[in-house]
Every structure is written in structure tokens, then in C-alpha cells.
């Protein structure tokens, strides 16, 4: 079974500053992906960044980067130069198993971190 | 717009009534997922379709819930004899087949159910 834990229900950051959101996970799968999704108020969830577990290099997408610590099963998200538009609920998610035609490959989500950006 | 579309966006119903939600996935996606999200929680997996076949159902999906995906295109999620505990946001997501799969799911805006 897979579990994802986000221990920070809410976070706040000043505009242009950097913030780190924490996530830990547990899985018995040897092959898995990890994700951070952003859910703005009343809008659909969108992918922020993705990490393949077999890759040692941390993923980066513009102002977003992750710190992937496989042995510690930790997957934190760093947002640099925070912008007002970054205010949203952020979900950490894992997706495990071998990727073949019949596999479900469903996402398992954490409970989310609500990020507020102060002007 | 070629994203995932869900209807209705909001449904208010009385306890005991039946409700149906529809999801139109991105056209080239053959994988379709339903999730339920309650206030303060992350989305919880309900069921998964690959084309028209329902390949996995969560234990959260009680006998009052049924999902279909005829012809492997749009999907419906029906809740019979609604209860107040069914009040939640129901999210639909789709993705590519495994050959193209990056693991990413594309979500709709959700259908919010309020049971009075």
C-alpha cells in the first residue's frame, strides 16, 4: 500500500521569497513516480512537477524544484520567487507499480498544504 | 478547450435522491479515473477505466455508486439514494495509454455535490 503524508496544513510566504512544502511517502513499489499538484480555488488541479524515483537528479521546472530523498522517502517542493498566483492548495502524490497496459497506476494523494502568498 | 469537462459543476439534492455526474475526458486519452475530495482532504481514488473496461474499484465505492464508460469515451458516475456523507467534490481525470504515459493525470474542475 502507498501512503503520502503532508504535515503542514497551511503555509505562508511573502511575495518574491522562497518557501518549501514538505511531503513524506511510503511505498513498497520499486518503480514509482512522485508529483506535486496545484489546486487553485475553484479551479482544476494541475501538475506542477514530476519526479521519477529511479532518477537521482532532482526535478526542476522554472521556479519550482524538488528535494527528493529516496532513502528517507521525502519529497519536498521549493517555490522560489513566490508570486501571488502561486497561492493555492498543493498536493503531493505518488503513483506506483509497473506501467503496463492493465495497471491502474492511480495517484495517491496527501491531505494538502494551503499556501498563502502575502504581497 | 480540449481539457477534461465535468457536468454539472454543482448539484444540490435532497437525501435519498439519485444523482448522476458526467465526465468527458481529453479525446485521445483512454484512461479515466474518478476521485472524491472532501473538505480539507486530498482526492481519494474511486474507480478506474481503461477504454470501456472498469478495471479497479475502491472500497469507497459502495453499492450505491455505479460508474460506466460506454464506448470508452465519456463516463458517468451515479449515486443512488444519496446520503449527507456523499457531499463532496467528485473529480474526473484522464491520461494517455501506457506507451505515452508520463504518469500525469489531467483533471477536470470537478462536480460538487451537496446533499441536504
Give the structure's gist in a few sentences.
Chain A is mainly beta and about 120 residues long.
General description of the model:
Chain A has strands at residues 3-5, 10-14, 19-21, 24-26, 32-39, 46-52, 60-61, 64-69, 74-79, 88-96, 107-109, 113-118. Chain A is mostly beta strands and 119 residues long. In chain A, the strands form 3 sheets. In chain A, strands 2, 5, 6, 10, 11 and 12 form a 6-stranded mixed β-sheet that branches. Chain B has strands at 5-7, 10-13, 19-24, 31-37, 44-50, 53-57, 65-68, 75-79, 88-95, 106-107, 111-115. In chain B, the strands form 2 sheets. In chain B, strands 2, 4, 5, 6, 9, 10 and 11 form a 7-stranded mixed β-sheet that branches. Chain B has a 4-stranded antiparallel β-sheet with strand order 1-3-8-7, with no helix packed on it. In chain B, a hairpin with a 6-residue loop joins β4 (31-37) and β5 (44-50). Chain B starts with a strand and ends with a strand. The interface between A and B is medium-sized, with 30 and 27 residues.
What topology does this entry show?
The complex is a heterodimer of chains A (119) and B (116).
Chain A: E1 3-5, E2 10-14, E3 19-21, E4 24-26, E5 32-39, E6 46-52, E7 60-61, E8 64-69, E9 74-79, E10 88-96, E11 107-109, E12 113-118
Parallel strand pairs in A: 2-12
Antiparallel strand pairs in A: 1-4, 3-9, 5-6, 5-10, 7-8, 8-9, 10-11, 10-12
Chain B: E1 5-7, E2 10-13, E3 19-24, E4 31-37, E5 44-50, E6 53-57, E7 65-68, E8 75-79, E9 88-95, E10 106-107, E11 111-115
Low-confidence stretches of chain A: none
Number of helices of chain B: 0
| Helix and strand sequence of chain B | EEEEEEEEEEE
Largest sheet of chain B: 7 strands, mixed
Distance between the termini of chain A: 41 Å
* Mean pLDDT across every amino acid position of chain B: 92
Strands of chain B, count:
11
Task: Please compute the radius of gyration of chain B using only Cα atoms.
Answer: 14 Å
Uncertain spans of chain B, ≥5 residues at pLDDT below 50?
A: none
Rough shape of chain A? globular
Helical content of chain B, roughly?
Answer: under 10%
Largest interface: A-B, 30 and 27 residues
DSSP E strands of chain A, number: 12
Number of alpha- plus pi-helical segments of chain A: 0
